[in-house]
# Entry
Amino acid sequence: MRAVIRLLPVLVVVGLLLGLRQALPLSVPAGPEVEAARAAIREAVAEVPFLVEARLAGEEQPLPTPAMELLKPNAVLSRTYTDLSTGREYGFVIIHATDLNDMIGHYPPICYPSAGWTPLGGADGDEAPRQLTLELGFAELPVRLYRYMRLDALGREVEVRVLNGFILPDGSTSTDMETLRARAGRRALAAAGAAQFQMLVPAAYPEAEVVDAMEAIIRSAEPLVRQMGLGGEPADATDPATEGDDSPEGRST
# Structure
């Protein structure tokens, strides 16, 4: 199962590649204010501590270099956190896309089945993914809980839970692709990018412990997620260089 947890960067890349094919024709240019906001997010990623509440120790899990060169995301935080008392591991990723359109089509219902995982629902007995809310103290953050299964090399079932959500530069949040598609039609907002956060764990982990760990990790990254727009001043999405016609015909290509 340790190897499965460390698959998260690969699964993220699969989703980004699928999303990129849809997003490239809709890319829009960014002016100096948006570029400054992007730089601030990159700087904030570098400041996220590796030790969380003296109980979760993080280890970098970089995205594959060729994929990073192709995708060119603005910033990525990709780590495996280990609970020092239980030994449980939590795969965690925050990826900030340079353009919101680059995130279209990139989320668990696409990238996990594309990597060979079968969707099972949100929790035991559920027929669909389930909505949860992370309580961070400085903000509430909705996430969607998914379950997936696949067979390992020995034919044994391996089941995981995935918690996923989005932070948009206008300060809003989402757990669905429809919201992102609606925002992508606004040129200024699209140019300011979007952030996706995701946690991957074995299905056997108690849900309460998983939620607690995810809340602790995101709290440790408070300056980063605030810079992305959550619970504070949203990133500037009114750059003069990206203002104008928000219709598909008015977008730059």
